[in-house]
Design goal:
It is built from 28 helices and 9 strands. By secondary structure, the protein is of the alpha+beta class. Helix 2 runs parallel beside helix 5 and helix 10 packs across helix 15.
């Protein structure tokens, strides 16, 4: 089809309303993006020729360039994560270098940079709002980190580095997706399924059947069967989390657990999807980028736009939390080993044994299983309860759209968000279920449309909320594990910061401009409500009887809240410190491999060190194909903020509805509304009245006892 034909009615060239996801095809991408780039380049030429050192003459005009990319490029990146295909990859990779090149041109425009510097010194500066001053300052800092001060030769090399890093990031993510899809094994002996929860048996059977439909073939071992059943199988096990986690927790066959575990920690580390060479190249290029910019290492480049002042400050946080959690983690492992030994298992405790025996210990100690909980957490009931909580806390109402909003998959829903006056203020897409064939693992929130003023109109913020929870199977609805419930709350917290912003300037609206190590504050804050009695019980209703979660099960959930908390905290610290050391002290050309470094650090931060053959960094998408490079520590940094924020509600009394709503509105009007318009420490102070205190996190984690004399 001729390129000109693909520009007619091309859904990626819309500039208003919601994106038309259902109409988007891979063949639309290249002509649409190139058209956008041509138009944006022409506009940039005019802006640079007519620029004035004023807000209206610089950033206000640059927003005109940004807006069409919300419809023409941002959806491409979104579909890359949720509807990945070979054709989409090819189209995406074709235009990605051109998009990166244009972005570099904007960020490295001397004309724009000098105008912004002049604006800082002009009489207009004092007339700008604090938000706009911060935007200008951050734009200048961003330009400097984009190589604005480099000589022509250095800038040429810098741009080549950025182009290659962008392509490597995409390739890394594709390798992880392909490696995840490529691995599976089938269980055909029913004795190997003894102890499996019903949900695992059903999902594994469904996965086997779905694979036969896709492949239009049936394996020889089960040639007489066309459809698997939970009772007779076959059962297909993959690396997708809704299968991986319950299998590791409940499979009695130790050799099968070992097989799945080893596949997980060596994913994307061999063959055509080997990410090892990509990791070395990424780290080498990031190091080169840092030195071109005059920084000693990439970690310092990353921290230049974050709350944490230095690598030393991050390491100090890690050290403090490590000291607070080490003894608890040692006890965790001793308890598991003791239970295993008492059950007559004399084999040495290995990494693939820990999830299984930890689950037995949790069942023994708290007398409930995840399988007991799932029937009480049907997805629709959880969603209704979450929306009711948000209405109580933040005076908003959420309603599902009934007017046929265009979506990328039948499972996707669209919701509109209304304020107390019934005025729409935002919207969001929700893509809840695991889809291993074309959707990357994990869960995330991303911006679809940002809040921005377009002439006399206000573009409302729209978010993408993406999860990978257990899907419905046959007549059985999606029954959520408790961890899946927490994940949904987490992503909604991110979405709320995007959607409830009141900032009109796009560069500081919602999550834009928020320092990366503060961006997890709202998400982790929301998770705390999963342990609040009234909230949790309102999320539940047995999918067959409608009965709420029994009080005894709620009590057990709360009692188990900090089960193995020391181990879990150390695991996050290991991720964070490995990331920081890879980007500060590690030499990509040295004799120590990235996996050697990871194992070495695990001796300090894991009571059961990593296997010698562990290659889990090869699937660590957060730092090699996400936004967390030299920033994974942010989860714990922000958790200090989020725990302290939730403690404000605890101090008021969680059962005092009026007080809770009053504090909820204050949280909405500060943390959620102000976005990147203020430094996060100032925003936190506006909400809490003081700087954050790590005591709340340690108290919530059970690592210190509450001070009964306080309050």
């Amino acid at each position: 089809m001729a390129a000109v034909d693909l520009l007619v009615n091309n859904p990626l060239l819309l500039k208003s309303s919601l994106p038309d996801f259902a109409s988007m095809r891979a063949e639309h991408i290249v002509p649409a993006v190139r058209q956008l780039l041509a138009e944006a380049t022409a506009k940039l030429d005019v802006i640079e020729n007519e620029i004035r050192p004023t807000w209206a003459g610089t950033l206000a005009r640059l927003e005109e360039i940004d807006h069409p990319f919300d419809y023409g490029w941002k959806p491409v990146g979104h579909l890359f994560g949720v509807m990945n295909s070979a054709d989409l990859r090819t189209a995406h990779d074709t235009v990605l270098p051109e998009v990166v090149q244009f972005s570099l041109r904007v960020n490295q425009s001397q004309t724009i940079y000098q105008a912004l510097k002049q604006l800082q010194e002009s009489s207009e500066w004092t007339l700008l709002t604090e938000t706009r001053q911060r935007i200008v300052n951050e734009r200048i800092k961003g330009a400097e980190l984009a190589g604005i001060g480099l000589c022509e030769t250095q800038r040429t090399r810098f741009n080549a580095v950025e182009q290659e890093l962008s392509l490597l990031s995409t390739e890394f993510a594709n390798h992880v997706l392909d490696a995840t899809k490529a691995f599976h094994f089938d269980v055909t002996d029913v004795t190997d399924t003894l102890g499996w929860p019903r949900t695992l048996r059903t999902l594994a059977a469904h996965t086997w059947t779905a694979a036969q439909t896709v492949n239009n073939a049936i394996t020889e071992a089960v040639v007489e069967l066309s459809v698997a059943t939970p009772e007779r199988g076959p059962w297909r096990i993959t690396l997708e989390m809704p299968l991986y986690q319950p299998f590791m927790e409940h499979c009695r066959n130790r050799s099968l657990r070992e097989k799945l575990y080893r596949a997980s920690v060596t994913r994307a580390s061999h063959g055509t999807v080997d990410n090892d060479p990509l990791i070395i190249r990424i780290l080498t290029l990031r190091q080169e980028k840092a030195r071109l910019l005059g920084y000693p290492n990439y970690a310092d480049v990353s921290l230049a736009m974050k709350m944490a002042p230095s690598v030393a400050a991050v390491c100090n946080m890690v050290s403090q939390l490590r000291d607070a959690s080490w003894a608890a983690a040692v006890c965790d492992l001793d308890d598991i080993r003791s239970l295993k030994d008492s059950c007559g298992d004399a084999t040495p405790l290995e990494a693939w044994d820990v999830p299984y025996w930890a689950e037995r210990l949790r069942e023994d100690r708290y007398a409930y299983t995840d399988e007991e909980l799932r029937p009480y957490f049907p997805f629709s009931k959880v969603l209704d309860g979450l929306f009711e909580l948000l209405e109580r806390l933040f005076s908003i109402t959420i309603r599902q759209a009934t007017d046929g909003v265009s979506v990328w998959h039948p499972d996707v829903r669209f919701y509109r968000v209304y304020d107390a006056g019934n005025k729409q203020i935002a919207g969001f897409y929700l893509d809840p279920y695991s889809r291993p064939d074309n959707k990357r693992g994990g869960a995330w929130m991303d911006s679809c449309l940002g809040r921005r003023r377009l002439g006399s109109e206000m573009q409302l913020p729209v978010a993408h909320l993406v999860c990978n929870q257990t899907p419905p199977m046959g007549e059985t609805p999606s029954l959520m594990s408790f961890r899946e419930v927490e994940t949904l709350f987490h992503e909604m917290g991110h979405g709320l910061q995007h959607m409830l912003t009141t900032v009109d300037d796009a560069d500081a609206a919602g999550i834009n401009g928020v320092e990366w190590d503060a961006v997890e504050l709202p998400s982790q804050f929301m998770e705390n409500w999963c342990y609040h009695r009234a909230t949790l019980l309102n999320l539940t209703g047995h999918y067959q009887t409608g009965e709420p979660l029994p009080e005894k099960l709620f009590d057990k959930i709360c009692a188990a809240k900090n089960f193995r908390v020391g181990t879990i905290l150390l695991r996050q610290l290991l991720f964070g410190l490995t990331d920081m050391m890879l980007h500060s002290e590690f030499d990509p050309q040295g004799s120590e491999s990235v996996h050697d470094l990871n194992r070495r650090l695990s001796t300090q931060l894991a009571v059961l060190p990593l296997l010698p053959e562990d290659r889990s960094l090869c699937s660590f998408q957060h730092i090699f194909s996400g936004g967390y490079a030299a920033g994974y520590y942010s989860y714990k940094w922000a958790e200090i903020l989020s725990a302290d924020a939730f403690s404000a509600f605890e101090d008021a009394g969680l059962e005092d509805a009026a007080a809770i709503q009053q504090i909820g509105i204050r949280f909405r009007d500060t943390v959620l509304a102000l976005g990147g318009s203020r430094h996060p420490m100032l925003v936190f102070g506006m909400f809490r009245g003081r700087e954050p205190n790590p005591e709340a996190l340690l108290r919530h984690s059970g690592l210190i006892q509450p001070d009964v004399n306080s309050a």
